[in-house]
Amino acid sequence: MTNHYSMYIDGKWVEADELYEIRSPATEELIATVAKGSVDHVDAAVAAAKDAFDDGTWRRTPPAERAALINTVAEKLAARTDELAALQTQENGATIRITGALHVGLSVGQLQYLAAIAEQYQWETAGPAIEPIAADGIVVREPIGVVAAIVPWNIPLLTTVWKVGPALVAGNSVVLKPDEHAPLLALELAREFEAAGLPPGVLNVVTGDGEPVGAHLSGHPLVRKVAFTGSTAVGKSILRQSADSVRQVTLELGGKGANIILDDADIDMAVDGALFACMANNGEACEAGTRLLVPASRKDEIVGKLVQRAATLKLGNPLEPTTHVGPIISATQRDRILDYFRIAADEGATTAIGGRAPCGPEFEKGYWIEPTIFVDVTNDMRIAREEVFGPVLVVLSYDSVDEAVAIANDTKYGLSAGVWGSDERALAVARRLEAGSVWINNWHIIHPAYPFGGYKESGLGREGGPHAIDEYVEEKFIALDRSGGIENKAFAIVIDPAVG
Ligand code: NAD
Question: Were both Cys, which of 273, 279, 421, 446 would link to 426 (CB 3.0–4.6 Å)?
Fold first, then answer.
C-alpha cells in the first residue's frame, strides 16, 4: 500500500482536497501521496504558530529541556538512518551512497550540535555598569516569533534542520514549507517532533506549491522571520516581499563554485575530487564545484584524465550502492539541462563526454542526464555563468594564479570554491576567493560546527556553526537604574552640559 502523508498543523494531521503524487524520478513509481495544501492551510498554520508563541509554553521551557527534546529527535532519526536514507533516495533520486551519511547523518549531527550549544548559549548576559548613572545593563536573547522555513528538494532534510533546529532551540514557532517534489523527510521530522512531545502549534508543516502557498507564507504579516533555501530568483522575491514589514531573512541561494587545480596539485587526486565536487548528489547541489579551472600548461593531461575517470562513473538506479550518479528530479529540470547543452554548443563549447540523455532499457523510465564535461569554455559563456543544477562540469584554463583567482571571483555567486595544491600555496589562494566555503584538497565538507552560506547573490546570513542560534533571536538591551530617581541621573546626561 502506498504511504500517505497529511500536513501537520496545530498538532493535528490535516488533509486537503487535493493530493500530490510523489513518484521516484528513477522509475516513476508511486512512492507516496501527500496532501496538497492551500493558502488557507498557511493561514491556519501561521495562526497556530502565533498562538503557540503567545501562549509561551515552548519559549518558557528551560533551554536545557528544549535541547533535550532536540536530542531525542536526533536520536530517533539516527536510529532510522537506513530507512530514511532509502526514502530520500526513492523520493529525489540522490544516491544511497550519500543519503545515509550526508542527508540523514549530517542532519542528525546538526541537531545534536545545536542541542549542545543551546546549553552553553548566553541567553542572558550582564554587561558592564553604565556610568555615570550607575545603571545595570543586561542583554536578553529571546525568540523572534513565527518563523517561516521554506526548503528545496535537493537536500531536503539538512536544509530543513538548519532552520527548524535553531529556530526551535531558541523558542520560536515554525511553519515549514517543504518543496512539492520532496516533502517526505520534512513530514517524517514532524512525526518525530510530535512523538518527542513538542507542544501543538510550535512546529507546523504545510505542503504546497511555491506559488501561491510558499509566497503566501513568506509574505504573511504574522511571520517575523523567513529562512529560505532555493533559487536566487525566489530568494530575491522573498527579500523584496520582506522589505515592507522589515522582517528578518536568511537566504541560501544558488552557486557556481570555482574549483582551482594548481600546477603543483596531485593531479589524480584533483581529478577524482573534481568529479566528486560536481557530480555528487547528481550535480543537484548548490555548493557543487561546477567550474573547473586548470593551468593551461597541464590542461590536456588533466582533461584526458578527467574524461577517463568520468567514463567510469556509474549512472543508474540510485538505490544501488555502486551507483555514482542517479536521475534528475523531474522532466522539467532534465529538459532545462538539455537546453543548456544546446546553449553551450551554440556558444562554442566542446563536449568532452556526455552531453545528452542516455539511451537503454534502464533509462526508459525516469529522467536522466549523462555525466557531462564541456571544454573550450570561457567564463563569459552562459554555461560558465548560470547554475545548471545537474551533473555538468565546465573546464576553463588559466595562465597565472592571479588569473585563476580573477576568473573564480568573476561570478554573481559566492557559495563555494575549492583549491587543489600544496597546503600553504592553496591556503593563500583560498584566502583570496569570494565564497562562503572554500575547501582545500577536498569538497563538500559541511560540518555542524562551521557556518554555511554565501557571499554575493548566493545568500544572506549563515546556517550551522557556532552562531546558528543568533540568527533566530532578537537581542534586547535592558538598563536598570538602581540609584533612585531620574532627576540627577538620566536627564543629567542630556541636559547638564557639565556631564553631556
Ligand atoms: P525554488 O526556489 O523554485 O524552490 C525552493 C522552495 O521555494 C520550494 O519549497 C518552492 O516551493 C518554494 N517557492 C517557489 N516559489 C516561491 C515563491 N514565490 N515564494 C516562496 N516560496 C517559493 O527552486 P527549485 O524550483 O527547487 O529549483 C530551481 C533552481 O533553484 C535550481 O535549478 C537551482 O538553480 C536552485 N536551487 C538551489 C538550491 C540551493 O540549495 N541553493 C536548492 C534547490 C534549487
Answer: 421
How many Cα neighbours within 13 Å face the side chain of 213?
24
Q: 209 with 270, same domain?
A: no
Is 492 domain-assigned?
Answer: no
**Angle of the 156-169 helix axis to the 106-120 helix axis, nearest 10:** 10
20 alpha carbon to ligand 1 midpoint, in Å? Answer: 18
| Ligand 1 neighbourhood includes 252 CB (under 6 angstroms) | yes
Give the count of alpha carbons within 13 A of 58, CB side only: 29
Q: What is the CATH number of the domain that holds 328?
A: 3.40.309.10
Nearest CA to ligand 1 atom 16: 210
Looking at residue 135, its pLDDT comes to 87
**Cβ of 330 below 6 Å from ligand 1:** no
Which contiguous run of DSSP H or E holds residue 308? helix 299-310
Asked if the model's pLDDT at residue 485 lies above 70, the reply is no
387 lines ligand 1 (CB under 6 A): yes
122-145 pLDDT, tens digit per residue, is: 999 999 999 877 889 999 999 999
Is the pTM higher than 0.90? The answer reads yes
- Residue identifier of the C-alpha nearest atom 6 of ligand 1: 152
- Tell me which residues are annotated as active site: 252, 286
C-beta 99 within 6 A of ligand 1: no
Closest residue (by CA) to atom 27 of ligand 1? 231
Query: Same structural domain for residues 368 and 242?
Result: no
- In short, whether 472's Cβ falls inside 6 Å of ligand 1 is no
| pLDDT given at position 496 | 52
| In a shared domain, residues 236 and 305 | no
Please write the tens of the pLDDT for every residue from 36-71.
999 999 999 999 999 999 999 999 999 999 999 999
**Running DSSP on this structure, what letter comes out for residue 144?**
-
- Distance from the CA of 235 to the center of ligand 1, in angstroms? 8
Residues 190 and 92 in one domain: yes
Residue range 150-165, pLDDT digits in tens:
999 999 999 999 999 9
Between CA 116 and CA 112 the distance in angstroms is 6
Q: Which of 171, 176, 121, 169 is nearest to 144 (CA)?
A: 171
Cell matching residue 210? 511555491
Q: How many domains does the chain have?
A: 2
The preferred substitution site among 179, 217, 457 for testing ligand 1, maximizing ligand atoms within 8 Å of CB, is: 179
